[in-house]
Amino acid sequence: MINYADLSLELITEFQLSQETKKQIATLLQVAFPEEDFHGRHYFKQLPHSRLLLKDHNQLIGQLGLDFRVMTLNKQPMNVLGVIDFAIMPKLHNQGLGTFLMQSLIDQMSVFSHNIDFLFLVTQKPDFYEKFGFRLTNQYVKWLVTEEHINYGMKEEHIEDCLMYKPLGDKEWVENSVLEMMGYWY
Ligand SMILES: CC(C)(COP(=O)(O)OP(=O)(O)OC[C@H]1O[C@@H](n2cnc3c(N)ncnc32)[C@H](O)[C@@H]1OP(=O)(O)O)[C@@H](O)C(=O)NCCC(=O)NCCS
């Protein structure tokens, strides 16, 4: 049973992370995404700008990374906060912790709707995110391909089954358009 009184949430900038926290993030990512090889890193492709950490006492039990960038949708720039590497310790799955972490992020970020137009994420499990108000989008997407710290140039493809957005401000999301990710695919 999870005792929510023992949990704490910390929003932290990437360059403030301690060695110990980076070690705990690296362990969490590797066990939560066993199909990927993180080579001991605490990030997958690139450092996020900040993170929301979920701890039980001093032990990291969940985390998500935040990538804040301008993307261009239908030729219009918009401020997009990407949620990446969202993970809960596997032995604690299906007890509501993922829901708690995602809802906490939305609550905390809603205050910044004057700066953040949309939350955004890539997923193979859209059902989980729909209950938080994320919607799948159908776009012609352009992004930078990166792998293991090497750039492989631009890729363009029609994507309809894994990109999700949630409006925070009052900007309108345009469907069936062109989405320039303005950087790497996370
Ligand atoms: C995705 C992930 C973060 C969800 O974490 P979680 O703590 O298991 O999430 P929750 O417990 O809140 O919700 C999971 C399911 O349990 C159910 N659930 C929620 N609260 C519950 C509770 N108190 N008791 C039982 N079940 C509960 C939810 O309905 C949900 O079901 P759904 O999948 O049909 O939506 C976790 O599975 C994970 O780390 N996966 C590996 C990494 C990954 O795939 N990350 C996502 C990349 S897009």
Topology diagram in text:
Blueprint: E1 7-13, H1 19-32, E2 50-56, E3 59-73, E4 76-88, H2 97-110, E5 118-122, H3 126-130, E6 135-136, E7 139-147, E8 150-159, E9 163-167, E10 177-184
Parallel strand pairs: 4-5, 7-10
Antiparallel strand pairs: 1-2, 2-3, 3-4, 3-10, 5-9, 6-9, 7-8
The chain binds coenzyme A (COA).
Question: Could you describe the 3D structure shown?
Answer:
18% of the residues lie in helices and 44% in strands. It is α+β, with helices and mostly antiparallel strands and 186 residues long. The chain has one domain: Gcn5-related N-acetyltransferase (GNAT) (Aminopeptidase, 3-Layer(aba) Sandwich), CATH 3.40.630. Strands 1, 2, 3, 4, 5, 6, 7, 8, 9 and 10 form a ten-stranded mixed beta sheet that branches. It is globular and about 45 Å long. It starts with 6 loop residues before the first strand and ends with a strand. The structure holds coenzyme A. Coenzyme A is lined by residues 32-33, 86-88, 93-99, 123, 127-128.
Q: Which features characterize this protein?
A:
single chain, 186 residues, alpha+beta, Aminopeptidase, ten-stranded mixed beta sheet, binds coenzyme A
What is the helix content?
A: 10-25%
Q: What is the averaged pLDDT score? A: 97
* Shape descriptor: globular
H/E element sequence: EHEEEHEHEEEEE
Q: How many DSSP-defined strands?
A: 10
How large is the count of helical segments? 3
The main sheet comes to: 10 strands, mixed
* The CATH class: Alpha Beta
CATH fold node name? Aminopeptidase
Briefly note the structural class of the backbone. alpha+beta
Q: Rounded to an integer, what's the Rg over CA atoms?
A: 16 Å
- Given as residue ranges, the uncertain stretches (5+ residues, pLDDT < 50) are none
Cofactors and ligands = coenzyme A
Specify the CATH homologous superfamily.
Gcn5-related N-acetyltransferase (GNAT)
CATH architecture: 3-Layer(aba) Sandwich
Distance between the termini: 33 Å
Strand content: 35-45%
